[in-house]
Amino acid sequence: MSGVLEQPADRGRSPYGAVVLALADTGAAPGPGDGARAEEDAAPVPIAPGSPDPRHRAEALDLLARLRAQGVLTALVTTGPEPPGEPIAEVVVTSAPAEDGERHPPAASLLLASRRLAVDPEHVVVITDSDRLVRTAVAHGFGLVVGVDGADRRGPLLAAGAHLVVDDIAELEIPVAAAAAGADWGGGSGDEGPWNLTYPCLDPRQEGLREALCTLGNGYMAVRGAACESRADGVHYPGTYLAGVYNRLRLEVEGRVVEHEDLVNAPNWLLLQYRVQDGYWFVPTPETVLEHHQDLDVRTGVLTRTLRFRDGTGRTTRVTTRRFVSQEQRHLAGQETVFEAEDWDGTLTVRSLVDTDVENRNVAGDAPLGGRHLGEAVLRDIGHGTVLAETATAQSGIRIAVAARTRVLRSGAEDRMLSRAPSRPAPGVVGHELRLRMSRGRPVRVEKVVAVVTSRDRAISTPALAAAALLERSEGFEELLAAHVVAWQALWSAFTVATDAGGRQGLAVNLNTFHVLQSVAAAHPDLDAGVPPRGLHGEGYRGHVFWDEMFVYPMITLRRPEWTRALLAYRYRRLPEARAAARAAGHEGAMFPWRSGSDGREETPRVLYNPLTGRWIPDHSRLQRHVGLAVAYSVWQYFQTTGDTRYLIEQGAELMVDIARFFSSLAVEDPEDGRYVIAGVMGPDEFHDGYPGTPGSGLRDNAYTNVMTAWLLARTTEMVERLGQDYGGPLWRRLGLREDEVERWGRIRTRLRVPFMADGVIAQYDGYEDLPELEWDDYRDRYDRIGRLDLILDAEGRSTNDFRLSKQADVLMLLYLFSAEELREILGQMGYDLPGEAVRATVAFYCARSSHGSTLSNVVHSWVEARRDRASSWSFLTRALDSDLVDAHGDTTRQGVHLGAMAGSVDILTRCYTGLEVREDMLWLHPAIPPELPRVSFSISYRHQRIHVEVTRTALRLHLAPGPAAPVRVNVNRQVHELAAGQVRQFPVEAADA
Question: What's the half-sphere exposure (Cβ side, CA atoms, 13 Å) at 511?
Answer without folding.
Answer: 34
